[in-house]
Amino acid sequence: MPNSKFSVDPELIKKLAEILNQTGLGEIEYAEGDRRVRVARPAVAAAAPAAMAPPAAGAAPASPSGPSAGTIVSPMVGTVYASPEPNAPPFVKVGDRVKEGQTLLIIEAMKVMNQIRSPRSGTVTHIHVADGAPVEYGEPLLIIE
Questions:
Q1: What pLDDT digit, counting tens, does each position of 75-121 carry?
Q2: CA–CA separation, 132 vs 47, rounded Å?
Q3: Residues 6+ apart with CB under 8 A from 107
Q4: Which whole-number Å values give the CA distances from 138 to 14, 97, 108, in the listed order?
Q5: What distance lies between CA 26 and its chain's CA centroid?
Q6: Where do you find CATH 2.40.50.100 in the chain?
Q7: pLDDT tens by residue, 39-63
Q8: If one looks up domain 44-144 in CATH, what number appears?
């Protein structure tokens, strides 16, 4: 739309970014009429620093700084879903080979569905969370080796 004028309020963008920082959400969208503004974090946010997470029971031996390097931790507080919709097969199961960027889980936070993508290729060796369970920031979700 080369002739359409769309003025963006910088204060609105700043407030949306603050909400992302405060809540740990992956993205937020604001709509007014037919105009939308979306602010999102880079996709690499799905692999939060492992040192922030408590050691996972049954995981590979943890180093003094945290769990195994293959542990994927929650980048936010929310509810985890193992499949795209109820009664659908899960995104991944233990033993599945995954590719970098593949969706592993969804975390719902404030009515926004955030896809948790694999930061690397490998095999799912352990799933720490149950479908529909609440998760905390930094909580281990699964292990990819």
A1: 999 999 999 988 899 999 999 999 999 999 999 988 889 999 999 99
A2: 20
A3: 74, 75, 76, 78, 79, 80, 81, 113, 114, 116, 135
A4: 25, 23, 15
A5: 7
A6: 44-144
A7: 776 644 344 433 344 444 444 444 4
A8: 2.40.50.100
